[in-house]
Predict the structure.
Amino acid sequence: MFPCIKWILGSAIVALFSLTAGPVLAGSDVLFTGGGIITDGSGAAAKRIPFSVGLFVDADGMTDGRLQFHFHNLDDVYALDQSRFTASVFDSVLIETRYRDTVPFTFVRIEARGSLDRMEGWSVLVRFSDFGVPVNNKEMLPENADALRISLFGPGGEAVYDTALDYPREQAWRTLLDGGNVSVDMRLAPDP
């Protein structure tokens, strides 16, 4: 069974259901971890975004964790070069099983608030794909590679940066990891 779990934290709604035939889940604890880098180009001038994520979501939808991105060598139009975004407030987390052709993967969508270079009020919408395969994903078939997309918003809610608009077209909506791995570890909670 490939579970789908959705937490809408702001309104404290927790929905747990299955994508395939089978019983509804009683509850889950989920640990989503990983780190790595996406790059465009080569050498010291390459555009690159190292990242790390450590997020725990319990069966009641409570979250604890940290999400971080460090932007390097971005075009001046973004005014983000050498900037670091850090979040520890998670407004919504969606974790579900999806399929690329017949290959299952875990899709994770996170909306989080935090700071950019210690200035509060910034937020991100991040989408991860976890195919369960580590390191050097760009050497693999794209349908079996871990990936992410980052959308960064300023204090007024305005869109400031999106990897979908900045990375090459063939990777625009799923920027494949050049190194690292993301991993969803889901443990079913015991029935009461």
